[in-house]
Design brief:
alpha+beta; two-stranded antiparallel sheet; 9 strands
């Protein structure tokens, strides 16, 4: 079983997702001018978690998904930032992924992980597909 789920906006977030298939939705995109393009999908509520995610394409192929819990209790801007809240944010999205059947670890199709990134000052999860 590979990482996949149906986003409430109608997009299947899965390995087969392509950058051109998202173009018609009008989601915010960042072209890194290196072959990489990141697309932000709208956040959605799933139980207590407000799942915010972006997908990253390399040469049009989905390679990674970054997820976070965007609930305001973790801080909505840098003025509300704290390392403790970001660690809780990472734990929350990790618990959500585990509840969906994807605990942290290596899989035949890729890897799932989460935690606090001290350099970026944020707590999140990443799903990377094997290339």
């Amino acid at each position: 079983m590979t990482f996949a789920f149906d986003h409430p906006c109608g997009v299947c977030v899965c390995r087969e997702l392509t950058q051109p298939s998202l173009a018609t939705y009008g989601f915010k995109q960042w072209d890194m001018h290196t072959g990489w393009v990141r697309v932000q999908l709208p956040p959605f509520q799933d139980g207590e978690v407000l799942v915010a995610l972006s997908v990253a394409f390399n040469a049009g192929v989905l390679e990674s998904i970054t997820l976070t819990d965007a609930r305001p209790e973790f801080g909505a801007n840098w003025g509300e930032w704290s390392e403790a809240r970001e660690r809780l944010r990472a734990e929350s999205i990790g618990t959500w992924l585990t509840s969906k059947g994807f605990p942290a670890g290596k899989y035949p199709w890729g890897v799932v992980g989460w935690g606090y990134d001290a350099k970026g000052g944020s707590g999140s999860a990443v799903v990377r597909y094997a290339t």
